[in-house]
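User: Before I run my own analysis I want an independent prediction to cross-check against. Here's the chain; please return only the structure tokens and, at the end, one sentence I can use as a sanity check.
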Amino acid sequence: MREVLAAAHDWRRRRIPFGLATVVASSAGTVTGPGDLLAVDPTGDVRGGIPAGCVESAVLDATAETLRTGRTRLARYPVGGDGPWPARPGCAGTVEVLLRRVTADCPTARSLAALAGPDPVAVATVVGGRAPFAAELVVRPDRTEGTLGTADLDDWAVDRAAGLPADAVVLGYGARPGVRVLFQAMPAAPRMLLFGATAVAAALARIGADLGYRVVACDPRPAFATVARLPAAHEVHRAWPHRLLAATPVTPDTVLCLLGHDPRYELPLLRAALATPAGYLGVLGSRAAHEARLIRLRADGVAEAQLARLRAPAGLDLGGRGPAETALAIAAEVVAWRHGGSGRPLSGLTGPIHAAHPTGLTSAAAR
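Assistant: Structure tokens:
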């Protein structure tokens, strides 16, 4: 989803129309689900995708046609059985897709911009029944934008959106019988705080942004704390890390990584970090260097329970070397922590590949 949202922002800024396909419902195994997006511009530049490869080409053709004609419609693609695409393991069923042409000033463009923004938001879209087809309502914590056609349907959508997990996509049925509404919810982007503008930080910033984090990088050295060095970071600060941390909101979904080895700020930063509710506290460096840190932190009175929160050396054991592979190992540990994964090879496990959402809804966090 995030790749399409970024492309939509760029196309809207340049006032380029594009075709948009949104998966509304799917019975085609776990390969695709509500909220998956595919977009194409007039040059044929494709972003996103429908992870049911057996129908993706057909969806792309239909999306390009919708871009040309401007006709909004709902399309169903049978997979397997008597349909035109043969069944494959995990790919049999039906995929239902909403096809729209998006222009710079249309409601859908504004809805996509809302989903891409920094604040929590839900977008409700009519996909069937006795209500204006493809009507949209943006539900923010303090206000709404647009309408689904009637006040009672809008009120129902606001109540329904308030009860959704912050990263869910779900097909609901409206206040009036027969009205189908697709909800896409996006939480406020969690922060990834990177201290030390190293090559690992530059690589991790790219991955963190792709994972949906708002990446904040910090280093007190003027030559290193630059946008040119960290182009993927949303913010780059030249400041003492512990002072920036004191001025930055930190929540349990915050990722904090100490990637530099500067004794001038290392211990003050770690003391400050351990006083926050940050859920992931990663520290690079050798085991010997970390033991020396722990000795100094204990001498400062930091409790063992707090010290146990430090993940050092940060990252999963992937066997890699160099900045890119080190960043990947850290990102892999972050993803496992975020979603409760084991970090073990899927080929050695049994059961569902994707853990069920606690409410039975589809998670949009990584879409």
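Sanity check: Residues 81-87, 356-367 have pLDDT under 50 and may be disordered.
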